[in-house]
Amino acid sequence: MLVRDYMVTDVVCVEIPGNRDDVLRILKRTGISGVPVLKDGELVGIITRKDLLRKADETQLGLLMTPDPVVIRPDAPISEAAQLMVRHNIRRLPVVENGTMIGIISVADLVAAIAQMRLEEPIKDSYVSKTYALWEDTPLSLVGRILEISGYDAIPILMEDGTLTGIISERDLIRHTRIEDGIEVSDFSNGTDDDEWTWESIRDMHTISYGISKIQLLPIPVKNAMIRNVLAVPLNAEISECALKMKRARIDQLPVVNGNKRLIAMLFDRELIKVLLPERQGLRKS
């Protein structure tokens, strides 16, 4: 099972110099999580949803992107791709051959490979993650901040009675953003710190106004942005069965519920691909 068998060759890219707003439109339209950045046809970086949300007031692609991305060759086994993604906590690897990018392989592509492997091992505690949930009336801006601090890609949403009612992910956040232009004002003085209260310092005070452009989350509760038709699995669900559900629904995570349909954990695709790691495969064979 090689990278070339699962990679995507028709890759959406952006060029430096370029426009941040164009990247945002691409991510909104396609639902993908990131795009490679090229300069004169050469791969120089990656821009992701996280980059746009964390650097909301940055417009230059060169400052938004992660430079010198981790890459992989097309003849590498997909287990090596899984190793790199887990080690570097990334979701995609540009595929490079003879110095040229010929494709990209993502977590979703590895999940598709796992779906074909017909692994009957239950997910249980080996692949699920502890999680927490938010109330359905939590403001979307606060949800974005919580996702950023926690490092989670998605969070379950509960109603007042504790019932699971939805899921919110970075993809949903991107779909509910807008570009907001405004004016910032800065004051500065020609004086030094020692004389900041002197008449000379006040006389030398200057004011500069400059335009800003920020990505803002819409001022709405999370229930208006979340996905409501939540696909969930039990703790004894089989690995390949879960991978197939993710592939068909084009989702990155599955809530794990108990017999009473109560949320107990989350199954993230980035955890599921650990089944491809050599040490995990060795355990299954033994």
UniProtKB/TrEMBL annotation:
CDD domains: CBS_pair_arch2_repeat1. This is CBS domain containing protein. Signal peptide: none annotated. Pfam families: CBS. Residues 7-63, 65-121, 127-185, 226-286 form the CBS domain. Keywords: Amino-acid biosynthesis, CBS domain, Methionine biosynthesis. It comes from the Archaea. InterPro entries: CBS_dom, CBS_dom_sf, Diverse_CBS-Domain. One of its GO terms (biological process) is methionine biosynthetic process.
